[in-house]
Design goal:
- By secondary structure, this protein is of the alpha/beta class.
- The protein folds into 2 domains: 216 residues, TIM Barrel, CATH 3.20.20.10; 110 residues, Lyase, Ornithine Decarboxylase, Chain A, domain 1, CATH 2.40.37.10.
- The chain is 26% helix and 22% strand.
- The chain is elongated and about 70 Å long.
Length: 426
Amino acid sequence: MLVEIYQSALDLVRKQPPERPVALVRRAPVTVAAQWFQANFKGDVFYAVKANPSPWVLETLWAAGVRSFDVASIQEVELVRSTLPAARLAFMHPVKSRVSIARAYSDFGVRTFSLDTHEELAKILDATGHAKDLNLVVRLATSGEGSNLPLTNKFGAQTHEAPSLLLATRQATQDMMGISFHVGSQCMRPTAYAAAMASASRSLVRAGVFADIVDVGGGFPSVYPGMIPPALSEYMDTINRAFNEMKVHEETQLWAEPGRALVAESTSVLTKVELRKGDALYLNDGSYGNLFDATHAKWPFPVRLHRPDETHNDEQLKPFRFYGPTCDSIDSMPGPFWLPADVDEGDYVEIGMLGAYGVTMGTRFNGYGETETVFLDDAPMASLFGLGPRSLTNPRPAYENDDNKVVRLNRPKGGKRGKKRVKAKA
């Protein structure tokens, strides 16, 4: 099937103004990110399918050389196996139903399963008929420090629980036993991986066992306004040093499960303004669609305004908040989202950096939620891989033009920051 590729969102708006939200997708950022991880991570890269399960993403990653996929449900197992029959799958959700385990093992050839309790270990063994070719990976708890979205409460064996579980898991499999953890989503501190790996190493020593796999999980960040992470190379260097210091044997494999960092740059979402009320814009997409994180994590994603009849908009930018199309009042996004001051009904707002946890979060609440997909050939709004700006910053609010405004002075070397009252120009 021939896929039409537009040069930009404005090109789409001019040629075929859409009535429904549109996922504007770019293959190049996924390809570049996948190649970078494979070249710089000294181990096996498993794509975390939950970040974006779109078939075009899976196919692009496969074409870029990614052969391993972290799946979290039997539905994701079925999706990846039907799209990429030869893919290597790891079922890394620590809590699974017996039916899902049995089907993954018997019907889809999955041999790697995660767990964080003795009960889940027994369940996996029972559902697979006490198979001898299992790779069992024990997920350990982490502090979540340094991440914008900590994942500390739901999963992971605590330090006092880990030794006995590691020993039991080691005794249960004749194939590989491993450890894993998740430092938290959008981790802004490379040292979080080193701390988690050091803690995992101590648990292995207490259990008196060696691990065949050390899986550092996900958490690798992307770029958003107000969140400019260290270079990804710092994460790789930190992980490599920590791995060399762990109490593991020479054949131990190093794994990672990047999701956000592989796909965040790839997609923006084009929404239509249905109404403006002061500084509030009512869009045809929202928290029950592609903008879950804009609502619940309150991330101020980067935005652009597009109009079918003009290229340039009002240069004065103002902060706006968004409301989605459903009747639920929680369907609101505080932002701020900086757009030209004259934005109004009928305009289109492109919301960037939504390749991760955008389309995958959509529902059908109130009958909304259907998103079209269009391929673009332009650059992402920001990039950690050299495809766009390295940082995103929101404009600062303009001062009111009055006689008593306060101007902050730059701090001179060795001096103190001060304030000075200035007279506004006539």
